[in-house]
Amino acid sequence: MAADRTRTAIITAAERLYAERGFADVTMRDIVAAADVNLAAVNYHFGSKDELIAELFVTRSIATNRERLRELKAAEEAGNGRATAQEIFAALVGPTLRGCLGEAKQRSDAARFMIRASIESVPPIRKIKNREVDHLKRFAAALRRTLPDHDPADIFWALHFALAMAHQTIRDTERLTRMSDGLCDLDNVQAIIDRVVSVALMALTGKPARAKARA
Amino acid sequence: MAADRTRTAIITAAERLYAERGFADVTMRDIVAAADVNLAAVNYHFGSKDELIAELFVTRSIATNRERLRELKAAEEAGNGRATAQEIFAALVGPTLRGCLGEAKQRSDAARFMIRASIESVPPIRKIKNREVDHLKRFAAALRRTLPDHDPADIFWALHFALAMAHQTIRDTERLTRMSDGLCDLDNVQAIIDRVVSVALMALTGKPARAKARA
DNA sequence: GTCTATACCTCGATAGAC
DNA sequence: GTCTATCGAGGTATAGAC
């Protein structure tokens, strides 16, 4: 239990510092100072700096992925086993976008940490993302159930593009704001989700999205 | 001239090593050993490791941006001052995708370096990318000339999405391949450009792209 | 099993000789 | 311009206290 306290203190301090200052600027000595523990405690509990970062990222990723699957299941149950393509894309990009965009003031350390992870793409996190494939295959499978006549390759491309748009929007919020001189509204998260989903749908079907597929 | 030789040797060796092994695994001592120069030479000629990386990236970026603008101008001249939206998007994403995708064996160090830069997004390179805004505004301006009745915000969103799709395709080639079990063809670069452009167009106009706007 | 003090090694940077 | 020597910072490893 004393062990738990130290471990938790490290996790909390590390997530906060990385969220605030990014991965490049935070050293292990910074973290242990903030957590008020000994330098060697990080290696004892996590093995290495990279494994600490990996654990932080995995914890938050699991939460996001769970929320994605929850939305997917809910849509499938509401549709008697078939979600609409629109709902599937929304389940994929909605949780991430809702977590990372919106009013900056009230953002949690967890949300800001995930934004950093997206922007800075440090080696331990890259390795984990490469294993995200199985999770994505579930959304591909859902789309194939809904659109059995579609070319499977087009389905994968559409998923790939949906993720691309969502992640780049999180990553390059600032560039989009500056390029558009503030014209692109990045506070209305639902509007952004709708936009990404609608483009992903068009990528898939070659047609503009109908406003509402099901009430 | 002796100075030039040293400087060039460092640049060549650094680009090759970064291309081969990524930024995280290559130290300055690796670079100077490969270039057969003294350790202090890097700091003398470039100031710091980060400035060396920045110079490598800027050099290659300028080449890409020049090619983008060349394509844009060519299309505008062919269209008497107005390029089609299709041509504008193609000018934006074509040079990058042609440089970074396609047959892996014949990829130059320069191309592989740019792929690494895209994937690993190391601090000095992030800083430079943030100044890319002026370049993008030229493409926004071209689109506004071609589509004067469109909502400007939609134009910026479409440009943002086009870049997102292109960069993610370069960055996550492997994930897309694995997710689709090899079904998505990443060797046919022109087909990928067409796909990205067509989705960007739909994002902009809300309609599927016509096959050829102008012969 | 948990934690601490401390030493080690690699890396980027720099001062000063040539 | 180039080189040697060395410094400080950062991540890691270990020996031993509790």
UniProtKB/TrEMBL annotation, chains A, B:
Domain HTH tetR-type: 4-64
Keywords tagged on the record: DNA-binding
UniProt KW Acetylation keyword: no
Portion annotated as DNA-binding: 27-46
One Pfam family per UniProt: TetR_C_30
PROSITE patterns: HTH_TETR_1, HTH_TETR_2
SUPFAM superfamilies, A to Z: Homeodomain-like, Tetracyclin repressor-like, C-terminal domain
Protein name (record): TetR/AcrR family transcriptional regulator
